[in-house]
Amino acid sequence: MKPERVLFLITMLVFTAIAPMAAQELLTAPRFFDTVAERYSSIEDYVARIVMRNGEDLMEGTLYHRRPNLIRIDFTRPADQVLVSDGRTLLVHVPRYNVTLQQELRQRQDNVGGLATEQGLRLMRANYSIAYLEGPAPVPLEDGSNLMVTRLRLDWRNTNEGFRQLVLSVDDNGLIRRIEGITVGYDEIRFDFRDIRLNQSIPVTRFDYTPPTSANRLNNFLFEQEG
């Protein structure tokens, strides 16, 4: 999978990193998901450490998100790489190649901020079937882990979505700690969200970014903008 496509898929997922849950009663999987959507609007912003794995490739950095559609990732690996989006335009600066990638986003699933909203979660609800992966009882995040999570499995209902399947691992505080995705091309991508901090009053200026003037600019690197 091309690195720029991986970056775009990352932005489709990172917005689901936070899912506050209040109810402790047993819920059906669809209702559990609906509760996430109902509560999602209470999150004004968040900061998290994000780790992304695609095969042997590893990326990590600090993720900032502010409602309704602002996102920024300052990468430490690869060092100094930056991803920024306002929901209309996606900008990725790759210092290793001295290039800045810019993509004008379409209105629906290509809008990287869409999943951060109640409407975006409704789109997931409409386009994926939802079930518990192993039942509602919490299980360790992985072998040897003390972190207990409940896993939701989402399977696509049509081929317009970027992922055939998603597995969301939710801890007992209602935070999604891991997302595992299988892409259209059967690539497996994993996203871990750590050190999550809610409602940090992140200023809008945090999402201002001007790439170096010396960097080459590549426009619409994912798809052509619709006229």
Average of pLDDT: 81
Number of discrete domains = 1
The CATH first-level class comes to Mainly Beta
Going by CATH, the homologous superfamily would be Lipoprotein localisation LolA/LolB/LppX
Shape label: globular
The CATH topology annotation reads as: outer membrane lipoprotein receptor (LolB), chain A
Q: Low-confidence segments, ≥5 residues, pLDDT <50?
A: 19-24, 108-117
How many strand segments?
13
Key phrases:
mainly beta, single chain, outer membrane lipoprotein receptor (LolB), chain A, 13-stranded mixed beta sheet
Could you walk me through the main structural features you see in this protein, from its secondary elements to its overall organization?
- The protein has 227 residues and is mainly beta.
- The protein has a single domain (3-219), classed as outer membrane lipoprotein receptor (LolB), chain A.
- 15% of the residues lie in helices and 42% in strands.
- The protein is built from three helices and 13 strands.
- The chain has helices at residues 3-14, 29-40, 118-127; strands at 45-54, 57-66, 70-77, 79-85, 89-94, 99-104, 128-132, 139-140, 148-156, 163-171, 176-183, 188-198, 216-219.
- Strands 1, 2, 3, 4, 5, 6, 7, 8, 9, 10, 11, 12 and 13 form a 13-stranded mixed β-sheet that branches.
- Helix 2 runs antiparallel to helix 3.
- It starts with a helix and ends in an 8-residue tail after the last strand.
- Residues 19-24 and 108-117 have low confidence and may be disordered.
